[in-house]
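ok so I'm stuck.
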Amino acid sequence: MTTATPQSASRLIAIPETLNRISVCRTALYNLIHAGELHPIKLGRKTVFAESEIDAWINARINGKAA
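replied:
not stuck anymore, here's the structure
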């Protein structure tokens, strides 16, 4: 039996993958978090990001808009 994934569901990605996807250093990532541009999700001691939010942030930069 296969379970359908809801359209609103987003994969969670860890900090190393996030850094790779947005091509910034760790300090710049924390600056984006502090500025409210990205919103981390804490899972115990691990910090992750919603892949959909990272994709939207990237697309906003490509389109010349601030998120």
